[in-house]
Amino acid sequence: HLNFDVSDFYMQPAYYNLGVVYSEMMQYETALNCYEKAAVERPMYAEAYCNMGVIYKNRGDLESAIACYERCLTVSPNFEIAKNNMAIALTDLGTKVKLEGDINQGVVYYKKALFYNWHYADAMYNLGVAYGEMLKFDMVIEKACNNLGVIYKDRDNLDKAVECYQASLMALSIKPNFSQSLNNLGVVYTVQGKMDAAASMIEKAIVANPTYAEAYNNLGPFLSFLHSFCAKQNPPRVLYRDAGNISLAIEAYEQCLKIDPDSRNAGQNRLLAMNYINEGTDDKLYEAHRDWGRRFMRLFSQYKSWDNIKDPERPLVIGYVSPDYFTHSVSYFIEAPLIYHDYAKYKVVVYSAVVKEDAKTNRFRDRVLKHGGTWRDVYGIEEKKVSSMVREDKIDILVELTGHTANNKLGMMACRPAPIQVTWIGYPNTTGLPTIDYRISDSLADPPDTKQKHVEEIVRLPESFLCYSPSPEAGLVSPTPALSNGFVTFGSFNNLAKITPKVLQVWAKILCAVPNSRLIVKCKPFCCDSVRQQFLATLEKLGLESLRVDLLPLILLNHDHMQAYSLMDISLDTFPYAGTTTTCESLYMGVPCVTMGGSVHAYNVGVSLLKTVGLSNLVAKNEDEYVQLALQLASDIPALANLRMKLRDLMLKSPLCDGSKFIQGLESTYRDMWRRYCKGDVPSLKRMEMEQQDLPSQQTVPEDTTKVNGLGDVPISPIKTNGFNFNPGPGTSSPSNTSDGEEKRAAFKAE
Q: Cys-Cys crosslink for 110: which of 94, 607, 662, 710, Cβ 3.0 to 4.6 Å?
């Protein structure tokens, strides 16, 4: 399978050609080194990755071979030789794990092999044998179609996924209501923005199987997306009851938990949803996180000692774990540490759980490797194994960047593989895990006198806890549209789940007070007519005519999404869950944003961003002041136009975009953590000791990690593909992942 033509020898880079020669001489280790050097010189070198895969395959290292083929197909998706080689390696791996006793995982690999080569006879034959050994003859056809549908969904071929799920439903007349396929159709329709069809499919899945826990889990994100904005002539009992809002979403998650108390998806999605309506008036949200963390931690064994040398001033190894190293909203805040760290003193090891890599993933990887760091792809690897990798890498400080959002690795954090563990960026609240020492924030998002409780100890960076790296595809700032329109346009590109009824009330008050003003709101669900109509009807009831409102659906290309800010004069932030990426994008495109502070971190992110940029005058203390600030901006068009043309430069010169200065504060914070550890001051160990003392009085949880198959346990398996979200990420390379303010992603599960 070596892809090399001798006639092209002198046209190919030297290292690649040397690799081919050494391969033919059977000096495979030297050949691998040559291919690796070729790939470093030319990161898009698909042939080099392919030939590396061949060597690993022939040596019996199937996992490494598959990893090489994946790299190859990332840069050259239609490389037929690599696709065929991938199918062979996956089939061999399926047979290997089946012989080791894991027939279900064997079926998974056979199915994935058929994705790469539909006609590969060995994969088909072995799949049939496996089903025969499982004595599941009546499920062969429908399961095959359903599982292939999951594979296509993961590969972003949503139309093909729909065909497979529909074929699964039609395959056997004895089971026309196969609940898994109904559920999975609902998942795909939701990703496509077809909310009515999604609602219908998930409802049918529940009717077909009333104890189908994950279907209830999938209702939750759907409802939190829609709030009370969807209506039908005959509303389904579960989806569209009168109280159809975040509270109903939480109810759906709790229904799932009643059926399956160990559902990790539902447990974490419930916590995420509660942030949308939490104003910090009580400790209920903290207690929910704390209780989840206690229960979850007991599903894993914790490391209690580490070999890391306790020298307070030695170079440190920092591990960063995230599924969002691709074109995704979180990636704009991950970039600075990867680029600006002093690798001689703070070596970076990246644990990437990206479902599908894109050009940004490759750029991140290349920069980390170029600086002398380490990049490990851990998608599909069980969390306990990842924790072992962390131990082997001798990570001093392990930083998770996801929290309770999709594809997280909190199970790995529960094992406590590193001496110091930190949570940062990806989640606006405590994780609840006693094994995490610190939560990184700042004095504006989490003031020293905050009443909000956290399981972790809060450490505050000198300035903002975020460092924004703007998209190079953004384009130029355009003049404020009010100059040519003759009226002011307010807008928001935030996640629809953040636009609560109270937010709409305040927005309507602003619009009604500014004659002829307009409102533009953009997010994916607006491609669904029923969502649009109900959203407009809600505003009509608040006194704002629908003719003054423009609703935009998903915009695929990142450049076009950023240029859509040219349609608005003033950006309106959401509350109590403020925008993050959307606020930064708005400011970068010259659009001032009005925000409001509150008593919890999620409320105050906008406060931190705006004050860091120097726009304290746009931060309100309450709803009345929020309205007045918006009205003041709208009353002076020349001043608004002048601010617009200065805002990008103001932002770029602020600490929010100063990567080198930001990293100094971050590294100093890491050093302080390490010095404390060297003195025996470890917050999580103290906390875990307290948990152990309380353990006898609490309900025990069996040590059965096989039930923990939710957000963080993301097997390669197409049968159970977890962490599937509303926004196209993280299973897609489309820049549209950032184009609707989808900053927090619930786990939407296809089975």
A: 94
Edge-to-edge strands, sheet with 549-552: 549-552, 518-522, 489-492, 570-572, 593-596, 619-620
What count of Cα atoms within 13 Å lies in the side-chain half-sphere of residue 388? 5
The one-character DSSP state at 542 is T
Lowest mean pLDDT among 8-22, 135-149, 212-226: 135-149
Report how far apart, in Å, the C-alpha atoms of 735 and of each of 248, 357, 560 are: 31, 12, 10
298 close to 703: Cβ distance less than 8 angstroms: yes
Residue type, 211: T
Question: From CA 514, how far away is CA 486, in angstroms rounded?
Answer: 12
Give dist(CA 250, CA 252) in Å, integer: 5
Q: Contact at 8 Å (CB) between 359 and 325?
A: no
Cα 54 from chain centre = 32
- Token look-up 């860091």 returns 612
**Per-residue pLDDT tens digits for 652-705:** 999 999 999 999 999 999 999 999 999 999 999 888 777 666 654 443 333 333
CA dist list (Å): 529 to 196, 197, 545? 9, 12, 17
pLDDT digits (tens, 9 = 90+) for 315-370: 999 999 999 999 888 999 999 999 999 999 999 999 999 988 899 999 999 999 99
What is the C-alpha to C-alpha distance for residues 72 and 113, in angstroms, rounded to an integer? Answer: 16
Show the CA angle centred on residue 322, arms to residues 666 and 448, nearest 5°.
Answer: 40
pLDDT in tens, 465-506: 999 999 999 999 999 999 999 999 999 999 888 998 999 999
Task: Count the Cβ atoms, other than its own, within 10 Å of residue 683.
Answer: 20
Q: Which of 265, 288, 261, 293 is nearest to 277 (CA)?
A: 288
The tokens describing 665, both together, are 């504060």
DSSP string, 405-438: STT--HHHHHT--SSEEEE-SS-SS----TT--E
Higher pLDDT, 631 or 111: 631
Alpha helices in 424-528 (DSSP H): 482-485, 501-513
Q: Which helix (H) or strand (E) holds 321?
A: strand 316-322
Instruction: Name the residue among 37, 76, 153, 73 with its Cα closest to residue 90.
Output: 73
Rounded distance between C-alpha atoms, residue 177 and residue 535, angstroms: 32
pLDDT confidence of 177, banded at 50, 70, 90? low
Residue with tokens 């910090």: 280
Task: Find out whether the peptide bond into 730 is cis, omega within 30 degrees of 0.
Answer: yes
Task: Give CA–CA dist 422/401, Å, rounded.
Answer: 9
Which residue, chain included where needed, has tokens 């691998």? 32
Residue 667 contacts residue 673 (beta carbons within 8 Å): no
Q: What is the DSSP string of 272-292?
A: HHHTTT--SSSSHHHHHHHHH
For the chain, give the mean pLDDT. 82
Strand 748-750 to 721-724 pairing: antiparallel
Taking a C-beta distance cutoff of 8 angstroms, is the pair 181, 142 a contact?
yes
